[in-house]
Design brief:
The chain has 328 residues and is α/β, with parallel strands linked by helices. It has two domains: 210 residues, Spore Coat Polysaccharide Biosynthesis Protein SpsA, Chain A, CATH 3.90.550.10; 92 residues, no CATH class. The protein is built from 13 helices and ten strands. Strands 1, 2, 3, 4, 5, 6, 7, 8, 9 and 10 form a ten-stranded mixed sheet that branches. The chain is globular, with a radius of gyration of 20 Å. The protein starts with a strand and ends in a 17-residue tail after the last helix. The relative contact order is 0.14.
Length: 328
């Protein structure tokens, strides 16, 4: 059995999937399975995949389109490695990702998942900025990491965990956590990560694990504008109300989440192209039961926290000092 599976869920990415698969095939680890699951593409993606010849490559085509996170689940069900990374078909792994991060997982068996930094690029591959760089490197207790993610996202809308392409999962923890929620359209990865962290610790690597191409075909862009992303964010907060209650911040976190919606609405009202989204988010914020003065205060906190993070990256994220990563 392979020690690691690189799973590539793909749908209609004929012109990009070769890039992702090539980055998987060039990983230096000797014991790899590269699994590509085509979600019944209609643009010739499946036929293009047939031209790639490598004994480590396993190609599977679904009988029907399972949706985004449904295809992620199909990958998890088919993978055979002790560790798995779900590589986006429009992303690519950095050199040495698997060999480097598997060593960390092998030496630290309490770790359920490992998140690296991510490098955003434009459509031509030019680097833009790093993402998932908020949590300090080391090993963080799962419950602490869940709380810190919720706190930081509510106050800044910064996602401190990488895209799936830069996250290594321990398959044993995946089996305990369950699969991706298929009813979610944009936050399925975060929901899944936080459930994973109920079954182990989080390792944060300082290295860049993946390059993520920004392009117009990314599904989450429209979902950020039509209110879907906010509704799913609120859903995730409600999933963890017991943890927030034990930390004494249940109601403040709900207020801060609605305050973020108000802040986004106000920002989007400044641009005529996004005013419809702005009005929608303001309406959602005002429909909450949060008193107006507390909603306004939460909105101000969001703007202040975003500004502080811009000029003072690394400020408080609600995490105790991490444990050092053991090495083999």
């Amino acid at each position: 059995m392979p020690i690691c599976t690189i799973a590539v869920p793909v749908y209609n990415r004929r012109d990009l999937v070769h890039r992702a698969v090539r980055s998987a095939l060039t990983q230096s680890h000797a014991d790899l399975e590269i699994l590509v699951v085509d979600n019944l593409s209609t643009d010739g993606t499946w036929e293009a995949l047939q031209t790639i010849q490598d004994p480590r490559l396993r190609l599977v085509r679904n009988d029907s389109n399972l949706g985004l996170f449904g295809n992620f689940n199909r990958c998890l069900q088919l993978c055979r490695g002790d560790y798995v990374v779900v590589l986006g078909s429009d992303d690519e792994l950095t050199e040495g990702f698997v060999a480097r991060e598997v060593l960390v997982m092998e030496a630290n068996p309490e770790v359920a998942m490992l998140s690296t930094r991510g490098q955003l690029t434009d459509a031509d591959g030019h680097p833009l900025r790093l993402i998932a760089a908020q949590f300090p490197p080391g090993i963080h207790a799962g419950e602490d990491a869940i709380f810190a993610w919720l706190w930081l996202y509510a106050h800044t809308r910064l996602n401190s965990l990488n895209y799936p392409s830069g996250v290594l999962l321990r398959r044993e923890a995946v089996l305990r956590a369950g699969l991706f929620r298929e009813d979610l359209r944009t936050a399925g990865d975060i929901d899944f990560y936080l459930r994973m962290l109920q079954h182990g610790s989080l390792a944060i690597s300082q290295s860049v694990g993946c390059r993520i191409m920004l392009h117009s075909g990314q599904a989450h862009r429209a979902l950020n504008m039509d209110g879907t992303a906010f509704r799913e964010q609120l859903d995730i907060v409600h999933q963890h109300l017991c943890l927030l209650e034990t930390r004494g911040v249940r109601q403040p976190m709900i207020e801060q989440t609605y305050g973020q919606a108000l802040a986004l609405g106000l920002l989007r009202m400044l641009d005529r192209r996004t005013r419809a989204s702005g009005r929608l988010h303001i309406a959602v914020a005002r429909s909450s039961t949060v008193p107006a003065h507390r909603l306004a205060a939460a909105c101000v906190r969001f703007f202040v926290a975003r500004a502080l993070w811009r000029y003072l990256p690394g400020m408080f994220v609600g995490l105790p000092p991490p444990k050092a990563v053991r090495t083999c």
